[in-house]
Amino acid sequence: MPWWTAAGEQAGADEMNPPNVPARGGPGLPQIRRLVTEIPGPRSRALAARRAGAVARGVGETLPVYVHAAGGGVVVDVDGNSLIDFGSGIAVVSVGNAADGVVAAVREQVGRFTHTCFMITPYEGYVAVCEALNRLTPGDHDKRSALFNSGAEAVENAVKIARSATGRAAIVVFEHAYHGRTNLTLAMTAKSAPYKAGFGPFAPEVYRVPLAYPYRWPTGREHCGEQAAARVIELVRDEIGAGEVAALVIEPIQGEGGFIVPGRGFLPRLAEFCADAGILFVADEIQTGFARTGTMFACEDEGVVPDLITTAKGIAGGMPLAAVTGRAEIMDAPQVGGLGGTYGGNPAACAAALAAIGFIESADLAARARRIGELALPRLRALAARYDVIGDVRGRGAMLALELVRGGGDTRPDRELTGAVAAACHRRGLIVLTAGTWGNVLRLLPPLVMDPALLLAGLDVLDEAFAEVTAAR
Ligand SMILES: *Cc1c(COP(=O)(O)O)cnc(C)c1O
């Protein structure tokens, strides 16, 4: 009986041979959108019913099609529908889903050994990933890295390392920030519902300051970066106390917070202030890293060199891996045994990362990301010219977003409209994600290997979705 058959259901000939379901995924899958049932189809709905009886409801879902295979820029569900993937599993499969090199590297590794725990008996893959991170992250100073399982775990460890290295406690974070869902990272994450509501108390000594948010800066975009930096510096100096602050942690382009690209000058000014005040500048590049924004790391755009950088998501082609990389003297501050974890830097995840990183470099996926931006941004701007509910078009490379508002000059966020456009995309077989403190941002994160024709086909679907939803209002 195929694994996607609902429990207890008798598998007939039809279940044994579902239509259009490929035997395997990877880049060989036809890079097309093709719908053979409604979305979600009957097999997905059967699995959703099983899910409801088995999985805690707190684990949300965006689009309940159950995946059978995926490859390149498409996801094929258990009903045989082929969907265009503008989500990459949240900026993870930048190298394409089930990329050949990643699959081969993982197979080879798990055939030799699956786990030893790097803290017990080490292996080369972990060291090689750290070497790659030390080489690729901004700055040519001496660096060290440590590996973990998830982005949140990397952020937690960056805080531990920063406190250990500075002997200070306070951590400065920003409005709209997202740093994860563990207790310390929830203190650092901005948005209440659904992330934080009911889960407190949160860790102390985390202070939130304004972000240079060009679209909504009171005096307009032009001086947003410098004015916001001045305000942050004032708050840190006069209210938090610069001498108390271990680290300032910032996403160079915010992810879950709505793909907000800080006003120019904001990041360099803050980095300069931090250097003067003995505060560590920590770039959370978990979503922006590994070529997503058109450079290997997003801080490179304004020449910012962070003291510590956290990475995860795009690092390993879909395998769970995360890292903290930074100045050797800072990274080496914690005592021996103070960092680590049972699975951190799992050998299969390291093998996947080496394959993914090798591919990102050799295929110049940063250039592919820039190309995606060049193809998509004019299309998104043309859309914004036609629909005044699109208040802002922003992003860089293959990290792009539309902020949706009431329209007609009213810039109040429109969450309902955003949900309706996303749902219209989903019904048409386009996976798009939403984001933003007010849930009013549509975000596009295609795999960097996406075929340009498929990208444009996906943008056509987005256009149709806007036409449908705005006509119905
Ligand atoms: C996703 C994300 C995290 C958390 O990563 P997980 O792997 O989900 O724990 C932290 N920071 C940023 C910027 C992210 O996008």
Question: In a nutshell, what does this entry contain?
Answer:
The chain is α/β, with parallel strands linked by helices. 37% of the residues lie in helices and 16% in strands. It has 2 domains: 42-99 and 365-471, Aspartate Aminotransferase, domain 1; 102-362, Aspartate Aminotransferase, domain 2.
What does this structure look like?
The protein is of the alpha/beta class. It folds into 2 domains: 42-99 and 365-471, Aspartate Aminotransferase, domain 1, CATH 3.90.1150.10; 102-362, Type I PLP-dependent aspartate aminotransferase-like (Major domain) (Aspartate Aminotransferase, domain 2, 3-Layer(aba) Sandwich). Helices cover 37% and strands 16% of the residues. It has helices spanning 13-16, 42-52, 88-91, 100-112, 124-136, 151-166, 183-188, 192-196, 224-240, 266-277, 328-331, 347-362, 365-386, 415-427, 452-471, and strands at residues 67-71, 74-77, 82-85, 143-148, 170-174, 206-209, 245-250, 280-284, 308-311, 322-327, 390-396, 399-407, 410-413, 430-431, 433-435, 441-444. The strands form 3 sheets. A 7-stranded mixed sheet has the order 4-10-9-8-7-5-6, sandwiched between helices. Strands 11, 12, 13, 15 and 16 form a 5-stranded antiparallel sheet that branches. Strands 1-2-3-14 form a 4-stranded mixed sheet. Strand 11 and strand 12 form a beta hairpin. It is globular. The protein starts with 12 loop residues before the first helix and ends with a helix. Residues 1-13 have low confidence and may be disordered. Bound molecules: pyridoxal-5'-phosphate (PLP). Pyridoxal-5'-phosphate binds next to helix 6. Pyridoxal-5'-phosphate is lined by residues 150-152, 155, 178-180, 251, 255-256, 284, 286-287, 312.
